Amino acid sequence: MSMKVYFADEQLRHEPRTFLVSGAQKPSPEQSERARRLLAGAEQAGLAPERPADHGLGPIARVHTPEYIDFLSRIYERWQRIEGASEEVIPNIHPDRRDGSYPSSAVGQAGYHQADTACPIGPHSWDSIYWSAQSAAEAAVAVRDGMAGWTYALCRPPGHHAFKDLAGGFCFVNNCGVAAGVLREACERVAILDVDLHAGNGTQGCFYDRADVLTVSIHADPVRYYPFFWGFADERGEGPGLGYNLNLPIPRGTGDEDYMPALEDAIRRIEAFAPDALVVALGLDAYVGDPFAGLAITTDGFGRIAERIGRMRLPTVLVQEGGYLSDDLGPNLTRFLTGFGNGHGA
User: Fold this and answer.
1) pTM for this one?
2) Which of these is catalytic: 64, 161, 198, 219?
3) Is 94 an annotated catalytic residue?
């Protein structure tokens, strides 16, 4: 079975301009150039991308509320009808509750559905968001149907900070959740392992009360780092999902050697869950040279991490998350893909 890579050109159309960092407006690092460099990295690993099929809204609707999907698909057009509105949809109000009435205004809904200023919505954003999710869905279909032992979805924009009805941290639709939902059509249990620099808070939130999807995240300790309010070790799930979420926060600046014990803890929990398939939230922003500078994983370190995950030999969907512009972004992906292939052996 050959390795498959999925990407649609529409994913390049989302071009966010700015975001706020400690109150200062700076250019958004979530640029379309990321996807181009990742494509080059996949090709360097000997893999040619395929265009995903259009699976419609169904895979997205398994994860996200209809209110939220309607918001994402129509908010830009509505925003433009507001006199004096910004060119991008950026929230300027946030509710102090989420169990009250739902606002009718575009401004109120933007505050309700966008957690921060890092996820502005422009004229082509929904197109990119939609096709990013289709890449995840197609990658999961290929694994679900036995066409590939493992696949890579080059998802851009990323997704692991997106909750059921809330965008944040450059993320709109939870692509790992989309992949897990597709796999669940044939698999009784699915595990999601997040190796991004930041806690996969949206993925955690999407499955926090469920026992059929195990969520595990290794990330920089959020006590002084984004996403600040989620990702702590005492967050174990709730209701039927109690015991089905594992957070492994590690100190900022952690390098290759000190990362591996946390990975072993994650793998031990996944193996105890005995999943039928695995989704990996592949963040390359843990790199020592990444602009966010949170962890210190080397290019060879990504290879070691990938090979160890691959040795579980589970049917696996790799879903791209973070990893921002540096000269080594493409090579880091190449090393991860080749390392995973060496470990998985399929």
Assistant:
1) 0.97
2) 161
3) no
